């Protein structure tokens, strides 16, 4: 690091720098050094680092499990072994300066509340603060986050905007998508007439519960709707395979194949057909990836009608009626209550 201000050194040493013997708060290397130190302590206490998520630490003993997940210096501890949880808290208090905040209520901008129906996650305060920051607290609620059939393009003679402020705003909205999948497409919209790139989207469910979702603009232009759907299938399958590995770490072993729903018949036919065609050579790697999982009975492709495809709200701007129907199926029918 640069020499501190008012550091008394000779004139010959003014161009020298300090060599740090340990990381200081605020440096780029600090998070990595802290996490390395934390990982070493967790392993010393008998915890195993998950291969699926390196921020997850697990300990299984006497048929019980204790899990800790860390984000920078914020942690969540859970499990069905109260004695081990207490011992872990005492150990971490001795190793580091930290305190127990009690039952989980708020974590990195996400509010956690409990009821007889289960655990509810929301970002109400985060959303209100965002509205306050952008001076939109008095805005009126709408039925959909984006107009049906809207296509974006670069307007000629467009007035320049504050790029930094715009990027910060989009970044904050993207964080809001962690609990608001209905906003995902509006924030990642592609399909612009300028580049003609399609959008991939998926929902993943575990035990009938919505767990993860994503809406992402594809990196290349698809030559057909089947090719675009096929790339989306690959993206969703990769997420499902990762979730399966994570569940295995937690002790849940499923021998049932992953059900991957796709409403494009041509894309499903390509996945099942091992013969190389000119129309599939552009997605050759993806095709062999999905075909391998089909042959190994890891994944199956059940039929689904287009009107029942929930992921449509992640890949296109739909009408308010269709949007409401999909939110109802997702168990999020009240998600657009005014805030």
UniProtKB/TrEMBL annotation:
Annotated Reverse transcriptase Ty1/copia-type domain residues: 10-147
SUPFAM superfamilies: DNA/RNA polymerases
Alphabetized InterPro entries for the sequence: DNA/RNA_pol_sf (IPR043502), RVT_2 (IPR013103)
A Pfam family recorded for this sequence: RVT_2
Name of the protein in its database record: Reverse transcriptase Ty1/copia-type domain-containing protein
Natural source organism: Vitis vinifera (Grape)
């Amino acid at each position: 690091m640069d020499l501190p201000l008012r550091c008394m050194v000779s004139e010959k040493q003014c161009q020298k720098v300090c060599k740090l013997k340990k990381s200081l708060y605020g440096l780029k290397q600090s998070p990595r050094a802290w996490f390395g130190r934390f990982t070493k302590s967790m392993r010393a206490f008998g915890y195993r680092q998950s291969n699926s998520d390196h921020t997850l630490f697990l300990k299984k003993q006497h048929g019980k499990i204790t899990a800790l997940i860390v984000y920078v210096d914020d942690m969540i501890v859970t499990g069905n072994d109260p004695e081990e949880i207490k011992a872990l808290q005492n150990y971490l208090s001795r190793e580091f300066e930290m305190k127990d905040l009690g039952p989980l209520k708020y974590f990195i901008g996400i509010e956690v509340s409990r009821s007889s129906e289960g655990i509810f996650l929301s970002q109400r305060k985060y959303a209100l603060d965002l509205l306050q920051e952008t001076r939109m607290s008095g805005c009126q609620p709408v039925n959909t986050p984006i107009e049906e059939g809207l296509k974006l393009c670069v307007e000629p003679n467009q007035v320049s905007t504050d790029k930094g402020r715009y990027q910060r705003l989009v970044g904050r909205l993207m964080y809001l998508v962690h609990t608001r999948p209905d906003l995902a497409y509006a924030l990642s919209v592609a399909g612009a007439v300028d580049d003609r790139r399609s959008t991939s989207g998926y929902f993943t469910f575990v035990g009938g519960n919505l767990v993860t979702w994503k809406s992402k603009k594809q990196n290349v232009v698809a030559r057909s709707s089947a090719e675009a759907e096929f790339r989306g299938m690959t993206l969703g399958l990769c997420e499902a395979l990762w979730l399966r590995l994570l569940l295995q770490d937690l002790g849940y072993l499923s021998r049932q194949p992953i059900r991957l729903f796709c409403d494009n018949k041509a894309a499903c036919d390509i996945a099942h057909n091992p013969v190389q065609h000119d129309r599939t050579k552009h997605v050759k790697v993806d095709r062999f990836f999905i075909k391998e999982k089909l042959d190994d009975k890891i994944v199956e492709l059940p039929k689904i009608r287009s009107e029942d495809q929930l992921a449509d709200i992640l890949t296109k701007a739909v009408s308010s009626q269709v949007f409401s129907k999909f939110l109802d199926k997702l168990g999020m029918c009240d998600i657009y209550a005014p805030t």
